[in-house]
Structures are given as C-alpha cells and as structure tokens.
Amino acid sequence: MPEFMDPTTDFGFKKLFGDEANADLTISFLNDLLELNPPLVDLSFANLEQLPEAPEQRIGVYDLLKNVYCIAIVGYPAPGSTITTNHNSIRNDRPPHAPFYDKLKFVTVELAAFDPGKPEYSLDRHLNRWLYFLKYASSLDEVPAIFKNDRIMQKAFWIAALANFTEKERLQYEHNLKRLRDAYAIWETYHEDGRAKGLEEGRAKGLQEGIAKGLEEGRIEGEIKGKIETLLLLFSQKLGPMPAEIEAAIRALNDADRVQAVLAQFLQINNWEELQKILSPHES
Fold first, then answer.
1. Cα–Cα distance measured from residue 49 to residue 34, given in angstroms and rounded to the nearest whole number
2. Which single residue of 38, 220, 245, 250 has CA 20 to 30 Å from 158?
3. Where are the domains of the chain?
C-alpha cells in the first residue's frame, strides 16, 4: 500500500496548495517556480473553484495574484525543458512569443522530463525538491533523507501521508485517483491505437511503394531484355552465325544506356571483332 497520496491529483493538489492553513507551502512553491522579484511573503485565498459539468471532468481552481499566472502540471512526455514559461501570444499581428498582456503568463511544468539523476535537476535546488515530491511522492515508503531538515518539504510529506487522512478524505482521494487513472488509461489507449494505425498505414504505404518500385524495375528490365533480343537478331542476320562468347557478352548487358549505345553503332559494325571491342569492359 502507498504511504503518500499522489500530489498531482486534483484532490491532492488542492489539499496541499488550496488550503489557507498551508499558505506557507503555496508561497514556497510559487516563489521557487516563478522566481518572483520581489518574492511573495503573503497570500490570500479566494473561493474561485470552477466545478465540472460532469463527474469525469477535471475541477478548475484559480488562485489569482496581482499578476495572473496559469500553471499547468503535466505528467505525460512533452518536448522541451522541465519548465517552460510562455507569454500568451494569440495575436496574429505580433511576433512569436510577444506578450499579449504583460500581466498574464502561462507556465507548464513537465514532470515527465524531470530526472533527478541529471546534474541540472540536483535536489540542492529547492524547486527540484518540489518537482521530485510532485513526481515521486506516491511511490515512496518514507521521506527521503535529503528532505529531513527541510521544514517546508517535511510539512508537504506530512499532509500527503495517507495515514493522516480522515475516512472521508480517503474516499474522496481514491475516487479522484480512479478518475485520474481512467483518464490516463484512455489517453494510453488513444496513443496505442494511433501508433498501431500509424504503423499499419506505414506498412500499407511501404507495400504500395514497393509494388510500384518493383513494377518500374520490371518494366526497365523487360525493355533491356527486349533490346538484347533485338541485338542478337540484327547481328545474326548481318554477320551470320554468332560466336558463343559474343552472345554471352550481349546477354550480360544490364544497363539500358549501354544496350542503346551498341544498337546505335549497328550500322558501323562490319565483323565480330569490331563488336567484340565494343562489348569489352574497357570499351564501356
């Protein structure tokens, strides 16, 4: 059984960062993530929760600051670095990434890209501790030693400990976790179906291209063989019985341009020796 909740669930994230009693955690996380200057020192919470129209939809929670930041935490693989900060740039009359409104920013945290084994994600940096917590808390049996002197992270783990949940909280969390896993399973199914369809279409396209290439190669080979038979007939009629080595040399021709070149010299060739010179490799 897991010891800690998954902080990336709607329930888990709200329990950690949506409770005024945990404002110190929210302030720490936002200061680490946004690198605000000056940093946040206080935070008030407004009840701006947007409830979904259907149970399977996600809950939207908006905690508004003087400057508005929309923060998305995603667990699936995405290109780019762990944190990418982009301005809202939906205007077509502005250069790429030009701010549409300087008080509105979108921040994406890509947990799938976070790898604590890489130097740039060292846990000496406090933001990386938050990312480690968000990504791995639900798979840990105990608080990692590096966090034991970190008051903020100790509190985060204490709040995430399932043993501290009431029965009602556990039921809410398990329901929320099931929704998250169901959504992920659907995403995986779509991903695998798309991959299988792509492979099948690729194979079909490859087969079609292979058939077309084979037909073209067959057509060229047929044209060469036809011209070779014409060469054999013409020289036999002009010069008489064909020596075996001459016939073998003509039949060995496998290049359409080379066959055409021999045909073009037909009228100038008056004996087998002249033809032999033309057919010799050093004459090609």
1. 22
2. 38
3. 10-164, 219-283
